[in-house]
Amino acid sequence: MPCIITDIIGVKYLEVTYFTALALVPFVLYWTYTLLLGVLLLVLTACFYIIKNHTKQLHDVNGQCVLITGCDTGIGHALARRLDSLGLTVYAGCLQETSDLRKHASKRLHVIQLDVTSDVSVSKALDYVSTHCNKTKCGLWGLVNNAGVNHVGDVEFCTMAMYRRIMEVNLLGMVRITRAFLPLIRKSQGRVVNVTSVQGRLPMPSHSVYGITKFGGENFSDALRLEMIKFGVKVSLIEPGNFGGTTGMLNDASLRIIRRDFDTMWAEATEETRRTYGKAYLETQYSNATNISSTSAPSLDPIIDAMVDALLNTRPQTRYLIGGSNGLVDHYCILARLRDILPTCIMDFLIDKVYSSGIPLEGS
């Protein structure tokens, strides 16, 4: 009798093992297929860029006119100086007219007051640029939508006013400037270069205010690119990774705004939200937001190089995802690339691990 029972148990064990193994076959095949597909995509991408770099050709610089928004500090400021040094005619849009760009530039560089949230300001800038570009044979060759502001905070803490403020600059400002200057770009069959962020491809906790404007900027740029094909206008996206410590986002004025926003979020939060999260949670986020220089890239040069390529390459890339870190890799740019091939549940796990590790994230 014991032998019969043992045999029955053994048979049942084999049946369970068999059916378990059989049930795992689809999962093994799926992951094997996914892995092989990922490796194939990486190899094809590497080959594409090697061929592209070897056949790279740049337009001759002959005083082409380029308008850049957000040139007070950071990326816009650095790009204006680089393009001026290359011989292009630069219209540097600055929110404050006190910009010191003129001190370090040639007479080809024009500093103009430009508030991307104001129809009146944009109209005045259009009149100025149109008047001066008409005197050149190239017209307005390039438009760089760079102006942007950042914000950090969970959905339950962020006010509607904060969503509107960031949206008005980052997304609607891009749309407003593009619609105004696009006729000039069409005439020259030039370039539109829109600065979004790695966060335009990678959602992050506590970054919904900033992130939705960057996702919106990506969609706007893709739609614009498709519309402009028939006119010979090329549209490129610049997606900086972890460069926040070098973009001017931590100057005195920016730090005051960050502190004010965190105080406002706590003051206007409901009692239930305060009890759920606690003041220490917000203060930790504030510390991370003001400590981005500890991990970010030490130089803006990779971003500026990409922007110059987008403006002058005869065959520019559609997207320039630019890793920035003071370490070996930019974790967020790696995650952005993996998001296209990994299941959502795994991506959520990885994003949570990277974000909870305390690595500060600033987009552009």
Structural class based on helices, strands and sheet pairing:
alpha/beta
Largest sheet: 7 strands, parallel
The separation of the N and C termini measures: 75 Å
Number of beta strands: 7
* CA-based shape: globular
Question: What is the succession of H and E elements?
Answer: HEHEEHEHHEHEHHHHEHH
Rg, Cα atoms, Å:
25 Å
Q: How helix-rich are the residues, as a percent range?
A: 40-55%
Individual helix count: 12
| Poorly predicted sequence stretches spanning 5 or more consecutive residues | none
Query: What does the average pLDDT come to?
Result: 86
Q: Order of strands side by side in the largest beta sheet?
A: 3-2-1-4-5-6-7
Report strand %: 5-15%
Per-chain topology:
Layout: H1 2-54, E1 65-68, H2 74-86, E2 89-94, E3 109-113, H3 119-133, E4 140-145, H4 160-170, H5 172-188, E5 191-195, H6 208-228, E6 234-240, H7 252-268, H8 271-277, H9 279-289, H10 301-312, E7 319-322, H11 331-338, H12 344-356
Parallel strand pairs: 1-2, 1-4, 2-3, 4-5, 5-6, 6-7
Helix pairs in contact: 2-10, 3-5, 4-6, 7-9, 11-12
What keyword list fits this structure?
364 residues, alpha/beta, 7-stranded parallel sheet, 7 strands, 10% strand, globular
